[in-house]
Amino acid sequence: MDLIEAIKSRKSVRGFKPAPVPKEIISEILTVSVRAPSGDNCQPWEFMVLGGSALEDLNTALREQFNAGAAPHPDFIRKPFTGVYRNRARELNTELFRLLDISREDSQKKKLWTLKMLGAYDAPNLILIYTDAEALGLSRVMFGIGALSQNIALAALHFGLGTCLLGAVTNYPEVVREMIGIPQSKIIAIGIGIGYPDWDFPANRLQSAREPIENITTWIGV
Ligand SMILES: Cc1cc2nc3c(=O)[nH]c(=O)nc-3n(C[C@H](O)[C@H](O)[C@H](O)COP(=O)(O)O)c2cc1C
């Protein structure tokens, strides 16, 4: 696939077919994706790749936290959105819920959708990326893992796969660390659900908006 076409066509996939992704394919995706740039080539990433009953167990544990009313407390703290950022997030969720036929008042359906998200939208595989933020500092970690994550999402397209970055699976990091055997010293940066997209699933019709670059770019001397 042409590079520009790949960047344009990548989108978050929130409905998957059950077939697991062969280990060799995930391995190839990770092998190319770690060509991502990172500060001084520090490569601030490590992976846990889950599938089968290991992933089901993690999904169940995360859902139990949510059902018990535990407040999300990711290692990378997320501030509540304000201003234009809140507007963009609202626009996204309004369109998503419209496609899913979830009304604003329907708290039961919203809850079910959150539970689905905590189960990586039923993706057959989950790539957990964890890192040593203590040693590296936030900026090296986030630039590196940002670039890496985009590589994973783009490389997945080459194999007919879809991905969704999932901050949600980092909501209860101590649960993930304990179940998966990630050292206490490492923090969970992001999860990436990966699998073969179910293009009939309504949420996969979502085409998220972007601010036109005229609104966000100043040209100087160009
Ligand atoms: C750091 C990060 C965390 C995200 N976490 C979630 C998540 O928990 N649940 C979800 O449905 N999408 C999540 N997303 C996907 C974004 O909602 C999505 O990238 C954005 O709406 C733009 O849509 P697109 O990916 O389809 O272009 C996350 C994306 C990023 C970069």
Secondary-structure topology with pairs:
Elements: H1 3-9, H2 23-33, E1 46-51, H3 52-67, H4 83-100, H5 107-118, E2 125-131, H6 133-136, H7 138-158, E3 162-166, H8 173-180, E4 187-195
Antiparallel strand pairs: 1-2, 2-4, 3-4
Helix pairs in contact: 2-7, 3-8
Residues 11-12, 14, 92, 117, 164-168, 190, 208 line the site of flavin mononucleotide.
Write a compact overview of the structure shown.
The chain is α+β, with helices and mostly antiparallel strands. 44% of the residues lie in helices and 12% in strands. The protein contains 8 helices and 4 strands.
**Sheet with most strands: strand arrangement:** 1-2-4-3
Strand count, sense and barrel status of the largest sheet are: 4 strands, antiparallel
- Taken in chain order, the helices and strands follow as HHEHHHEHHEHE
**Would you identify the regions where 5 or more consecutive residues have pLDDT less than 50?**
none
Number of discrete helical segments = 8
| Rounded mean pLDDT score | 97
Gap between N and C termini: 31 Å
